[in-house]
């Protein structure tokens, strides 16, 4: 507890994902009162052509 699933567009660097995972872990331990070892962060990378908001594909927004 907890397991956080983060869906992001593909192409982010490992350093950015590492920094974000650290920030999410720190926030989780502070707010939920759990140990850092209990926090899992899973990144799922998605192509812009597989994601739409407001009926518009993100690949068409570029």
UniProtKB/TrEMBL annotation:
One Pfam family per UniProt: Tautomerase
Enzyme class: isomerase
Assigned keywords, A-Z: Isomerase
Sequence ranges assigned to domain 4-oxalocrotonate tautomerase-like in this UniProt record: 2-60
Highest taxon, organism lineage: Bacteria
GO molecular function terms attached to this record: isomerase activity
EC number(s) per entry: 5.3.2.6
Catalytic activity entry: (2Z,4E)-2-hydroxyhexa-2,4-dienedioate = (3E)-2-oxohex-3-enedioate
InterPro entries: 4-OT-like_dom, Tautomerase/MIF_sf
Family assignment from sequence similarity: Belongs to the 4-oxalocrotonate tautomerase family.
Function of the molecule: Catalyzes the ketonization of 2-hydroxymuconate stereoselectively to yield 2-oxo-3-hexenedioate.
Assembly and oligomerization: Homohexamer.
NCBIfam families named in the record: PRK00745.1 (NF001966)
Protein name: 2-hydroxymuconate tautomerase
Classification of source organism: Bacteria, Pseudomonadati, Pseudomonadota, Gammaproteobacteria, Pseudomonadales
């Amino acid at each position: 507890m907890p397991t956080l699933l983060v869906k992001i567009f593909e192409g982010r660097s490992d350093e950015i994902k590492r920094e974000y995972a650290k920030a999410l872990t720190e926030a989780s331990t502070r707010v939920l009162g759990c140990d850092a070892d209990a926090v899992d962060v899973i990144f799922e990378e998605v192509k812009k052509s597989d994601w739409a908001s407001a009926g518009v594909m993100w690949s068409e927004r570029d």
